[in-house]
Design the sequence.
C-alpha cells in the first residue's frame, strides 16, 4: 500500500512536469518593452516586432493566432535575429510559409544570421530564399528608416558567437543624431572590445536558458556558462546603452522549456 501511494505521487508529479514543459513550448508570450529616447520627437513612436531562435519550429494552430497578434501590434518593422532555421534543417518550406505570412502583414523585415544558419550546409540556399522574398539581410551593414518626423539607423552584425561580425561595416557612416538600433544574434557582442555606437541592441541566442528556476533565473546559456547574467529581458550597460535579449520561439538540443515560455517581443521606442 505504501509503495502504491508513492508510485501514484511520483506518477502525478511526472505528469504535471511533462504537462508544464508542453505548455511552455506550445504557449507563446508577447514580451512588451518600452524604451524612451530624446532622439525621437516627443510622443512619437517606432514599433518593432522582434522574433528570434525559431529553429524551424512548426508553430501551433498553423501560427494563425501569432500572426493575428502581430497584425494587431501594427509594427513599423519586424526584426529577425537569427537561428530562424536549425543546423539540421534541410527542408525550408515550414519557415518560408511562416515568412510569406509575415510579409503579408509587413514587408519591412530585417534579418541577421545566427550560429545555426552558419552550421547549416544549406545556408546559402536558405539565404537565397530570403532574398527572393525581399527580406532585408543586414549582416555587417546598415540602413536608414525614414519616418515622417525622424529617422532610425538600423544596423546589423553577422553572428558574433561564430566570430562573423564586422563592427566597422555595421556602423559605417551612420548619423549619430538618429536613434541607432543594432541587430545581433548573440549578446556575446558585448563581451568583445568594441565601441558599440548604438542606443539599443536586440538579440536572442540564449533561449532564456530554456530551463529556469525561481530566484535563480536561467541555469545555463551558451557562451556564458552556468547562471548567466545576461539571460533574457532588458539590461542597462555603460553609457546608457540598452541590451534586450529575446528568449526565442524554439528550442535546441533538448525540446524542453521550463518556467520560460516561448516568446516574441514588441518593442516601442517613444520620444520624450
Sequence:
Amino acid at each position: 500500500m505504501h509503495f502504491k501511494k508513492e508510485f501514484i505521487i511520483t506518477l502525478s508529479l511526472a505528469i504535471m512536469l511533462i504537462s508544464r514543459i508542453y505548455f511552455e513550448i506550445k504557449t507563446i508570450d508577447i514580451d512588451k518593452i518600452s524604451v524612451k529616447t530624446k532622439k525621437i520627437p516627443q510622443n512619437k513612436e517606432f514599433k518593432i516586432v522582434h522574433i528570434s531562435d525559431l529553429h524551424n519550429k512548426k508553430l501551433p494552430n498553423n501560427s494563425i493566432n501569432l500572426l493575428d497578434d502581430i497584425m494587431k501590434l501594427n509594427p513599423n518593422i519586424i526584426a529577425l535575429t537569427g537561428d530562424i532555421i536549425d543546423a539540421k534543417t534541410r527542408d525550408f518550406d515550414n519557415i518560408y510559409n511562416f515568412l510569406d505570412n509575415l510579409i503579408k502583414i509587413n514587408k519591412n523585415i530585417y534579418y541577421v544570421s545566427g550560429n545555426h544558419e552558419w552550421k547549416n550546409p544549406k545556408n546559402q540556399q536558405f539565404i537565397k530564399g530570403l532574398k527572393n522574398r525581399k527580406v532585408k539581410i543586414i549582416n555587417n551593414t546598415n540602413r536608414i528608416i525614414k519616418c515622417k518626423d525622424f529617422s532610425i539607423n538600423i544596423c546589423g552584425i553577422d553572428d558574433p558567437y561564430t566570430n562573423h561580425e564586422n563592427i566597422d561595416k555595421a556602423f559605417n557612416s551612420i548619423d549619430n543624431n538618429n536613434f541607432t538600433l543594432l541587430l545581433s544574434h548573440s549578446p556575446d557582442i558585448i563581451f568583445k572590445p568594441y565601441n558599440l555606437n548604438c542606443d539599443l541592441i536586440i538579440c536572442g541566442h540564449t533561449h532564456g536558458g530554456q530551463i529556469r528556476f525561481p530566484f535563480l533565473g536561467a541555469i545555463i546559456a551558451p557562451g556564458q556558462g552556468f547562471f548567466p547574467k545576461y539571460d533574457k529581458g532588458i539590461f542597462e550597460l555603460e553609457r546608457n546603452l540598452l541590451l534586450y535579449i529575446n528568449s526565442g520561439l524554439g528550442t535546441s538540443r533538448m525540446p524542453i522549456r521550463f518556467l520560460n515560455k516561448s516568446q516574441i517581443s514588441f518593442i516601442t521606442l517613444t520620444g520624450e
Summary: The chain has a mean pLDDT of 92. The chain has one domain: 2-271. Residues 2-271 form a domain with the Purple Acid Phosphatase; chain A, domain 2 fold (CATH 3.60.21.10).
